[in-house]
Design goal:
The chain is α/β, with parallel strands linked by helices and about 725 residues long. The chain has 29 helices and 14 strands. The termini are far apart.
């Protein structure tokens, strides 16, 4: 093992500039900037690696752990130019990010083109970061003999068994010979956990022999191992394939270790328990020896052990905002949550408690207890989230987190009671914590349409919690929006029977039959009869992402695969605004002078008459051409050509007649006049924009209102009213 020696932040800053925007940056002791902290962090971690061969960088998110780890790697090559370094990223997207960050590091942070880390000519990496899809590929890349920097994935440990066995669990002998050569690897265990540990160990041995060219298996394969998001390894004793394969791959005192030195990265060292730190570190060293280095620790106090371990090999710093950490500026107030006004919700919880007590008594009779007694309900309804079984080999951290809830012993009780509740009331069971939170952050009442909408930021601990909260918030907004739409139909189209939908949102087919067909007599044009949206059918979202039932009524769908309705009355309404041939396309146009001037007497560009049908005016194209030719806008000819071709293409072949005899104002014109009374700064910003920026802003407004704003609901209700008043 090579001796590293100690280093200071000043020495680190000679090689690495942490302030990419200021090439002359240098470290100054006592400075509280992020850049100074990163230089200090690199020096501290380097010295820990030199002294104890292991270090834990546990800085909070946003402190630059990746940059600091890459700095350590660069300094390592300064000491040993042929050092082999392995990064283990949690998953593919993070592995790709490491590759990108390494190139950014060399271009913007590493100061010297020294032909040790970065080439003198071109500033290219001496050691390319090689991404490996799985552990066998890591061995194959190592065998090429020209690589010294690798990134593998945590998820690869979950799939180790699958690399060498078929779906029935039978060993693939050809794959064994391909990866391990002619060497005999011995009898492979039959049970999954031991097989994963065994194969992980054999892969490590193969790496060592490949890199060293010898049959020795005790020498480390790498000089430095960097484990990103190391908290993924916290459940060392949970029996999963991941931890068993990792334990075999990382090695030990007797079998040999995978690396001379280990750098662990995590923003959450105590991810779920104070015992997490010790569990993670114990893959590589005897944690007890580190804990008791200064004075014996209390074996009964896990918090004391964690603190001692973090002091021995760790570095943990919090990000600050205006000189305060999140713990200092966060003002937490406990908010009471109860079942007031929800007798059905209270009954649900009472039945849940009764069933839990009954189940607990049965467990006690069998001599078993369970610490997670009320875990499922008190956390929410995350235990109802997963809809499919996922094998251990398929675990990623989010799925596993969901399944932790779904496989709780009380999950079946929750599922059974929830189904009964939904069958009875037609909605999800109440939950005091979620209900109170939603009541606090939403203006879900009629005042919503009158007041100013505020954004809210909600912190959650788990992905399943996020999805459950999304479902409930969307349900609340859906009720608000549907009540608004239903009221418009009942008020302005009373001949249509809306009674069946008083307490529920109709499915697309129901909405089509009741309202699209029912309102036919009031159609102003045939926009709703178009066969295809100009932007195409919208893709189906992932099944586990909550979706709005009201928004679904406005969505263009492909017929088939269980979908019998491509368009509804609401869909036709929204499509009018994006169809070039629809007069509604005028609504989101910028003013003809990008201020408040209306469109009047402009050249009308027509669609081609290729199928014998009547040619139509392209209103969107005609307005755009009018803007480009308006003298007040002072377009350069080059910009005109680019914008015309980019936005309209073949649609600008003719402009034979004048349209819009009556002045036509747009939403932009109205907003401009409103802002003129309140905010000159906004108008000044728009005036200073380029032609491309103004066109992009108009598109942004249209997309935002039609696809991501409650304003769409209000516009639709106005449309329903307008249809009732005129043909």
């Amino acid at each position: 093992m090579i001796r590293l020696g100690r280093i200071t932040p000043e020495a680190v800053a000679e090689f690495i500039n942490f302030d990419r925007d200021h090439p002359s940056w240098c470290y100054r002791s006592g400075e509280q900037s992020m850049f100074a902290k990163q230089a200090e962090g690199v020096a501290h971690i380097w010295n820990l690696l030199s002294e104890k061969q292991i270090a834990l960088l546990a800085d909070e998110v946003g402190m630059g752990k990746t940059l600091q780890a890459l700095s350590i790697s660069a300094l390592y090559w300064r000491v040993k130019p042929d050092a082999r370094i392995l990064i283990i990223a949690p998953r593919e997207v993070v592995a790709v990010n490491w590759q990108n960050e390494f190139l950014t590091f060399l271009a913007n942070h590493y100061r010297r083109a020294d032909d040790v880390v970065k080439t003198t000519i071109g500033g290219q990496p001496i050691h390319q970061l090689v991404r490996c899809r799985n552990l066998p590929e890591l061995i194959a890349k190592s065998a090429e003999g020209c690589h010294h920097f690798f990134v593998a994935k945590t998820t690869s440990f979950s799939y180790v068994n699958n690399e060498f066995q078929d779906r029935d669990g039978r060993i693939k002998r050809d794959e064994i010979r391909r990866v391990f050569g002619n060497s005999t690897i011995g009898d492979i265990p039959k049970d999954d956990q031991n097989r994963a540990r065994f194969l992980g160990g054999k892969l490590r041995e193969r790496l060592v022999s490949t890199l060293s060219g010898e049959q020795s298996t005790s020498a480390p394969a790498f000089d430095l191992l960097i484990v990103d998001e190391a908290h993924y390894y916290r459940n060392k004793n949970d029996g999963s394939l991941r931890v068993n394969a990792a334990a075999g791959f990382f090695g030990g005192e007797e079998s040999g270790r995978i690396a001379d030195r280990v750098l662990l990265l995590t923003a959450t060292p105590n991810h779920t328990s104070v015992e997490n730190i010790e569990a993670i570190v114990s893959y590589f060293v005897d944690a007890a020896s580190l804990i008791g280095a200064t004075a014996p620790a209390d074996p009964q106090d896990p918090r004391d052990r964690a603190e001692r371990l973090l002091r021995a090999i760790g570095l943990r710093r919090n990000r600050t905002l205006a000189g305060r950490s999140k713990y200092q500026y966060r003002d937490e107030n406990a908010v009471a949550a109860d079942f007031a006004g929800s007798p059905a919700g209270e009954l649900f919880f009472a039945l849940y408690q009764k069933r839990l007590v009954q189940a607990l008594k049965q467990q006690e009779k069998r001599g078993k207890g369970n610490k997670r007694l009320f875990f499922g309900y008190l956390e929410g309804f995350e235990s109802l989230t997963p809809s499919e079984e996922v094998s251990d080999a398929e675990y990623d951290d989010e799925k596993r987190e969901s399944l932790d809830f779904a496989r709780n012993w009380d999950s079946e009780i929750l599922k059974e009671l929830s189904k009964s509740y939904q069958d009875c009331y037609g909605r999800r069971p109440s939950h005091p914590k979620y209900d109170r939170m939603i009541e606090t952050v939403l203006s879900a009442s009629e005042r919503y349409w009158e007041g100013r909408i505020e954004k809210n930021l909600i912190f959650v601990r788990r992905i399943p919690s996020l999805k459950e909260i999304c479902r409930r918030i969307i349900d609340s907004y859906d009720k608000l929006f549907w009540d608004r739409i239903l009221s418009a139909w009942q008020t302005h189209q009373p001949q249509i029977d809306s009674t069946p939908f008083k307490d529920r949102i109709p499915a697309r087919r129901e909405y089509y039959r009741a309202y699209t067909v029912g309102a036919r007599g009031f159609e102003e044009d045939d926009s709703d009869q178009v066969e295809e949206s100009p932007e195409g059918p919208e893709e189906e979202p992932e099944s586990d992402i909550p979706q709005s039932a009201v928004l679904d009524l406005f969505t263009v769908k492909k017929k088939g695969r269980g979908e019998s309705v491509a368009y509804t009355h609401a869909t036709s309404f929204r499509v009018r605004f994006v169809r070039d041939e629809s007069l509604f396309a005028l609504f989101f146009q910028p003013a003809v002078d990008y201020r408040a001037a209306p469109y009047q007497g402009i050249a009308g560009y027509k669609s081609t008459d290729s199928r014998g049908s009547k040619a139509r005016i392209y209103y969107d194209t005609s307005c755009g051409m009018a803007r480009f030719d308006h003298p007040a806008n002072r377009y350069r000819e080059r910009d005109k050509v680019v914008l015309k071709d980019l936005l309209y293409g073949e649609k600008i072949s003719s402009g034979e007649e004048r349209i819009l005899d009556t002045p036509a104002r747009t939403l932009w014109s109205i907003m401009w006049e409103q802002l003129g009374e309140k905010d000159d700064r906004v108008l000044t910003e728009i005036d200073a924009m380029t032609a491309f920026d103004r066109e992009a802003l108009a598109l942004y407004l249209r997309k935002g209102i039609l696809y991501a704003s409650a304003a769409l609901i209000e516009l639709y209700c106005w449309f329903i009213r307008a249809q009732s008043q005129t043909r």
